[in-house]
Design goal:
Shape: globular
Low-confidence stretches: 2-8
Number of strands: 0
Mean pLDDT: 89
Oligomer: single chain
Helix content: over 70%
């Protein structure tokens, strides 16, 4: 009897761990960590970090990101099914679709509440920005996602917002934040257009009007390359101005070379497998760049 109970407990334990893993996959938790680090980088670039503000800013970014990605998968369920995205928990049937919507609502609610608390001893703009982000996130997922460049631009803006948010916490959105935000914006915009190329077949069946559908996959790839080249140009500016450090210099050059490699691979092939590999590589590269700028801001503070 005790053996049967232990076996049942182990199974329940395993199921619980798998469910938690599926939730973390749904909300792309690793992205949330990166967003949180982005807030801290923004604070470091705009005057420094206090522990309480940094903690609140970090968790606001994490919960907002979780809410946004859960809503994204709720809305994109049919597209992901058509594309056989079995890396998505909803497509695998590990999480119910309505659960994703509940998780999204919880993430946004916690983000708003924490931002209100943070605004009481920083700036009211902190709270206003988060409320606006929630409203735009809902509008993006249910309305603008189907239209060329509007949805892509929105996502790219959300990728740069953590740095701006960090500056708002210190009431100092300066030149450093503007440059770093611009770099992330253009790299993010390129990644989002890549995502539309990746989803081309499914979105065409659903009669979406994304950029690749309007101008074709090949021309959309040229748009991606332009975004990455502009991002590379912006990335060179900080290493000759406010990040004068040899290690940072070579790190940025290396990361830029990776983006150039991605551009060449995209020109050579636009098949689904290559697109997914290159998108993953760009995410890792952006994450590495984020840590480079974090170390830079720590060493220059």
């Amino acid at each position: 009897m005790m053996f049967m109970k232990a076996k049942h407990d182990n199974k329940a334990n395993k199921n619980g761990k798998e469910y938690l893993k599926s939730i973390l996959q749904l909300v792309r938790f690793e992205h949330g960590i990166l967003y949180g680090i982005g807030v801290i980088v923004g604070m470091m670039l705009s005057g420094g970090v206090s522990i309480l503000s940094a903690l609140l800013g970090f968790f606001i970014a994490v919960f907002m990101e979780c809410g946004a990605f859960a809503m994204n998968d709720y809305v994109d369920y049919e597209i992901d099914k058509m594309n056989k995205r079995f890396d998505r928990p909803l497509v695998r049937g590990k999480i119910k679709r309505e659960t994703a919507l509940y998780i999204s609502m919880i993430g946004f609610t916690v983000g708003i509440v924490l931002s209100f608390i943070l605004s009481q001893f920083t700036s009211l703009y902190v709270f206003i920005l988060i409320v606006l982000l929630v409203l735009f996130s809902v509008a993006y997922n249910f309305i603008f996602k189907k239209y060329p460049l509007i949805g892509n631009t929105y996502i790219a803006i959300t990728m740069m917002i953590p740095f701006v948010f960090g500056g708002l916490i210190n009431d100092n959105v300066n030149e450093k934040i503007a440059i770093i935000s611009s770099i992330v914006f253009f790299f993010g915009l390129g990644r989002e257009i890549m995502k539309d190329i990746e989803d081309y077949s499914a979105e065409k069946k659903l009669k979406f009007n994304t950029l690749p559908i309007l101008i074709g996959k090949k021309k959309a790839v040229y748009s991606v390359i332009v975004c990455y080249l502009v991002g590379i140009v912006f990335s060179i500016y900080p290493i000759f101005t406010f990040f004068s450090n040899t290690i940072i210099y070579y790190s940025v050059i290396l990361l830029d070379l990776i983006f150039l490699y991605v551009c060449m691979r995209l020109l050579k092939s636009q098949d689904l497998s290559n697109l997914r590999k290159m998108r993953k590589l760009t995410l890792v590269t952006i994450a590495a760049g984020l840590f480079v700028f974090l170390i830079s801001s720590l060493s220059s503070s």
